[in-house]
Amino acid sequence: MAKHPTKAPPAPLAAAAAPRKSGRPTSAKPRPRKAATPEPAPESSAEPAAQPKAPPPQAEAADPFAFGADQRHLLETLSLNLAKAAMTAQSAIAEAALSQADRPAALSPDPFNVAPAMTSVMTSLAARPEKLFQAQANLFSRYMDLWSTTSRRAMGEEVPPSPSTDKRFRDPAWSENPVFDVMRQSYLVTSEWMNGLVSSVEDVDPRVKRKAEFFTKLLTDAFSPANFLASNPAALKALAETGGESLVKGMQNFAADLERGAGKLKISQADYGQFKVGENVATAPGQVIWRDELFELIQFDAATDAQHAIPLLIFPPWINKFYIMDLQPANSLIRWLSAQGFTVFVCSWVNPDLDKAEYGFDDYLNKGVYRAVEKTLEQTGQKLLNAVGYCIGGTLLGAALAHMAARKDARVASATFFAAQHDFAEAGDLLLFTDEHWLAEIEQQIDAAGGVLPGAAMADTFNALRANDLIWSFFVSNYLMGKAPPAFDLLFWNADQTRMPKRLHLDYLRRMYGQNALAKGEFEIDGERIDLSTVKTPLYFLASREDHIAPMNSVYRSARLFGGPVTYTLAGSGHIAGVINPPAANKYQHWTNPALPETLADWQAEAEQHPGSWWTHWAAWLREKSGEQIPARDPKTGPLKPIEPAPGAYVKVKS
């Protein structure tokens, strides 16, 4: 009898699945299983056992990756806006490239001649490996401190964030978010190290070293994490909150600025459409009483019943337009002077075109200063006037006073200089833009424009001197955040640049900045070698403590070149805000000292600080030199007949 196997035989292998037809999906839906037939319960005399209760139905687990309708809509909106922003930027860049394609190539890939300066600095550092080693050790130590603080913070330890006074990182997320805090501090450590390393070089020509320092800072400023969308928390927050609309607006701003610059990025600093010269800026009432090919002479209406007999004639810089002194009624220097009882005249320079390409200092002296003096005295019936020169207008006025002294011309009773230089030995970072290599580049730009330097060229230079404030802050706000530029009258004026004649501008850069000829007594104008020490006219010099265009020490050195009584006053703030600071604003401060010792440091040591504007101090000085009180003058009734109301036609000409 055969034995039964003790183990069940293995189950037969399942039949192989039939191959799928081509074109069918490789993952078909599983077929529903048939319900299993219940087996009959075994017979038993005992009572049936209690059946276990069925478990309660479980709620279906939420899928963490599932999106609701709102989230899907937000994601779709963000995706569409990112695509729209990218297409806007690409289109703008393509159009800019096409518009620039037929323009001549730059004279040099290194127009500022930075490479030799950096080579000199690196050579000096390589010759002193101990200094480089010490700098690297310092960098490593600072990074170790940063990593230690970051690790403690990541482990939950309460570590107060490192504060920053840098305006680029004032959003709280830069300190409160650990990731952005590390980005910020890493950048600051590295940039400070790089700039400090270049500044530590000792055996390099000071001007070469300063050029290396300046362009190293430009480079480190450009690489700030605040300037990139992916590493700017404020920009990312705006992107998320607006569903990408902020970036779309930013790229539209970017495209508009490229179009405005004819293919070259011209960053908007203000809402230029909000201002119109003669309507809501430059509105002080008056009349144009003289016009020739170089300037309009404007006489402003009296604001008092009586005025000082001796008039005041202002020569603004021809690099900018005169209405920096008449932006709004509340901060108008012209209106304020009229309210103090002065008869105010302003020389409004022409915005020169190609026919002025060969105009030079001789022309601006004879056809400008001398003619304006003559017409002001003719209009007022006086033999003397007081003069003011602002910035480069003051440089010209100082040379004119020496020229007048050589010819025994004493028609100017006193002169005031706002942020004006005559000694350029310490003229600040603008000296970096005056070597022969850069002058050749400037001359090429002028020749390409037909004989005048385009106004945008000077604007670019001035913006580079304060890149964080005048370039990168607007880059972030306009493009990364998508904000509209502010309606700011000062920045509207700043962008309203003028052209400059080739001969005048190159002579100014080469002779004043490059050779310091005026201070050395080597500058000639209209046949006279200028000696500033021969000027015995009473002078008032105004400098600003934070001026980056006419540094306070440069203005002080200039004040000491003249031979007569000089009053030097130092104001708070910079080149514009330090000068245009009405008393009613009660801002900043100023320092006075009647002495004029050898150095500015000596002057400051004995100077007295006063709160608020310097205007009242100057007005008291000016009154003593302005003669008796006479009935107020009406510009419409003088010997020179009015041509048109202020601000005239020349100031409205756009570059």
Structure at a glance:
Helices cover 41% and strands 11% of the residues.
Textual characterization of the structure:
There is one protein chain. This protein has 655 residues and is an alpha/beta fold. It is built from 20 helices and 17 strands. Strand 12 (539-544), helix 18 (552-559) and strand 13 (566-571) form a beta-alpha-beta unit. The longest helix is centred in the first third of the chain and has 32 residues, at 69-100. The model is unreliable at 1-52 (pLDDT under 50).
Detail the topology: elements first, then pairings.
Layout: H1 69-100, H2 114-126, H3 129-154, H4 173-176, H5 178-199, H6 206-222, H7 233-241, H8 245-260, E1 286-291, E2 295-300, E3 306-308, E4 312-315, H9 333-339, E5 344-349, H10 361-380, E6 385-390, H11 392-406, E7 412-418, H12 436-448, E8 452-453, H13 455-465, H14 467-480, H15 489-495, E9 500-501, H16 502-514, H17 517-520, E10 524-525, E11 528-529, E12 539-544, H18 552-559, E13 566-571, E14 589-593, H19 600-606, E15 608-611, H20 615-623, E16 629-631, E17 644-645
Could you give a short account of the major beta sheet?
Answer: 11 strands, mixed
Radius of gyration, in Å, reads 37 Å
Distance between the termini: 120 Å
Number of strands: 17
Alpha plus pi helix count: 20
